[in-house]
Specification:
Helix content is 33%, strand content 23%. It is built from 12 helices and 13 strands. The strands form 4 sheets. A 5-stranded mixed sheet has the order 1-7-6-4-5, sandwiched between helices. The model has no long low-confidence stretch (mean pLDDT 97). Bound molecules: acetyl coenzyme *A. Acetyl coenzyme *A binds next to helix 2, helix 6 and helix 9.
């Protein structure tokens, strides 16, 4: 059986930096509240004249390919994680395929919409295809444009301050090297809590005349509804469980982790996990301070930055973990 080796990681974040002080001008919030409750100091918002969900992902993929010294034409599968696709349909995977000039090769493109866990779900799917020998070089990406759906109002301030835009990518290649690359992935979900963190409209399952109404524009159903406290409580439990599950599956201990790269939803969640697992601060990667929560893009952006900063080296044991809407949660253990 083949293993999936990570040969390159890349990212793209829009140039436009939006600080907490910028948000103070738009709604009743403060830099102090945002930093204390979330750790976020600034985030990036896309420029609608040049950034799209799919072209940000292409740019991240190009960086990953360049760092890996792999030609774009070697890609034989795209797995694209996003909850903010360019269109309602088709998915953004085919748009990235076209951007990369791979349309003539007619390679498959899969879209994954598992929110904050989306990248690990996408990685798991890519890994299975490599393990079975069906594909050799896979581009796994996470890309999000959240800012165009945010409402800068007091009623939505708990949501609007946390999200940002960006994209990250990973190139996986099949290897015969034993014990190299993705060691295991673990995915879970619990639909009991689907409506605790969701965007309701324009949903399909209602009378035709109620699918899109003028009232929706005034109400909150087109915006993200988030029961922040409940999400927080579940996140800290599920994160720890998922990390321990990945370690146990591979006969490893928490002390063996060289770098934990958790989803970036709240710095307090990540600090809690770090303390619970008794990991030193330098073994947990955080960049939420600069980007906020970029949903499916947070993990690949973090991996790309951590790699560039020399915090991920060959044969390091890297643990990924995420929790989000669904609820869904997931983890992965990688021998880099
Ligand atoms: N600025 C100022 N005050 C605010 C803001 C704001 N931006 N937002 C909320 N407040 C106020 C509230 O109105 C409330 O005021 P009150 O006490 O007078 O009623 C007070 O602050 C406390 O509000 P809480 O919602 O209890 O604040 P909390 O400490 O829970 O922080 C937060 C909110 C940051 C959203 C937190 O709950 C959280 O991070 N939850 C987890 C989010 C998460 O993990 N999401 C998953 C990923 S997203 C995805 O999957 C798509």
């Amino acid at each position: 059986m083949k293993n999936s080796k990570i040969v390159g990681v890349g990212h793209y974040v829009p140039e436009n930096v939006v600080t907490n002080h910028d948000l103070e001008k738009l709604m009743d919030t403060s830099d102090e509240w945002i930093v204390e409750r979330t750790g976020i100091r600034e985030r990036r918002y896309f420029d609608y004249t040049k950034d799209t969900c799919s072209n940000m992902a292409s740019r991240a993929t190009k960086m990953a390919l360049e760092r890996a010294n792999v030609d774009v034409n070697e890609i034989d599968l795209i797995v694209f994680a996003t909850i903010t696709p360019d269109y309602m349909f088709p998915g953004s995977g085919v748009l990235m395929q076209r951007e990369l000039g791979l349309d003539k090769k007619a390679i498959p493109a899969i879209d994954i919409r598992n929110a904050c866990s989306g990248f690990i779900y996408a990685l798991s799917i890519a890994d299975q295809f490599i393990k079975t020998g069906m594909y050799k070089t896979v581009a796994v990406v996470g890309s999000e444009i959240q800012s165009s759906a945010l409402e800068f109002s007091d009623r939505q301030r708990h949501v609007s301050v946390i999200f940002g835009d960006g994209a990250g990518a990973m190139i996986l290649q099949a290897t015969d090297e034993p014990g190299k690359g993705v060691l295991s992935t673990h995915m879970h979900s619990d639909g009991t809590f689907a409506e605790e963190l969701y965007v309701k409209d324009p949903g399909s399952s209602r009378k035709r005349e109620e699918r899109m109404t003028h009232e929706m524009l005034e109400g909150l159903s087109l915006r993200a509804h988030m029961n922040g406290n409940l999400v927080f409580k579940h996140a800290v439990v599920r994160f720890t469980e998922a990390i321990m599950e990945a370690l146990t599956a591979n006969g490893k201990k928490k002390e063996d982790i060289d770098l934990l790269v958790p989803h970036q939803a709240n710095l307090r969640i990540n600090n809690f996990i770090q303390q619970k697992l008794e990991l030193s601060e330098d073994r947990v990667y955080n960049n939420i301070q600069r980007y906020g929560n970029t949903t499916a893009a947070t993990i690949p952006i973090s991996l790309s930055e951590a790699w560039a900063e020399g915090k991920i080296k060959d044969n390091d044991l890297i643990c990924l973990a995420a929790f989000g809407s669904g609820f869904t949660w997931a983890s992965a253990l990688i021998n880099w």
